[in-house]
Amino acid sequence: MKETQMLKGLLEGCVLALIQQGAGEIYGYELVQRLKASGFTTIVGGTIYPLLQKLEKNQLIKGELRKSPEGPDRKYFTLTTLGEQSLADFQRQWREMEGKVNRLLGGNEA
Question: How confident is the model at residue 108 (pLDDT cuts 50, 70, 90)?
Fold first, then answer.
């Protein structure tokens, strides 16, 4: 299975986690850069921006357009209460899945 196929199901949770980290807000380009710095080198804006729109439409994040110190305005995203719950659910499901896969592969349970 290709990494991109596996990542498709995990990317939403990863994006929510990155938004929560730090100051609790992030703009799209910065999000892509943080994903790449975390090892997701195949991620591009064309993948992230539609996902951000979907998350905003589903009220998991809230976007706010702000002036940028350089260049065009930036849309900063923060988690909503619903987004925080979704992230907590993702984290719980990830831990459960990680434990199952590790047991299956003969590794240590996470």
Answer: low
Cβ-Cβ contacts under 8 Å for 11 (sequence gap 6 or more) = 43, 47, 51
pLDDT of 54 strictly over 90: yes
Joined together, the tokens standing for residue 34 give 């943080």
Evaluate the CA torsion angle 110, 18, 35, 47 in order and state its sign.
positive
Nearest 5 degrees, angle CA 64-CA 39-CA 108? 115
- CA 1 to each of CA 4, 7, 11, 100, 109: distance values in angstroms, whole numbers, following the listed order: 8, 10, 16, 18, 23
What's the rounded Cα separation, in Å, for the pair 61 and 87?
Answer: 11
> To 10 degrees, the CA torsion angle through 15, 39, 47, 10?
-50
Could you tell me if residue 109 is left (phi over 0), alpha (psi between -120 and 50 degrees) or otherwise beta?
beta
Q: Residue 55 above 80 pLDDT?
A: yes
Q: What is the mean pLDDT of the chain?
A: 91
Q: What's the pTM value of the predicted model, to 2 decimals?
A: 0.87
β-strand partners of 65: 75
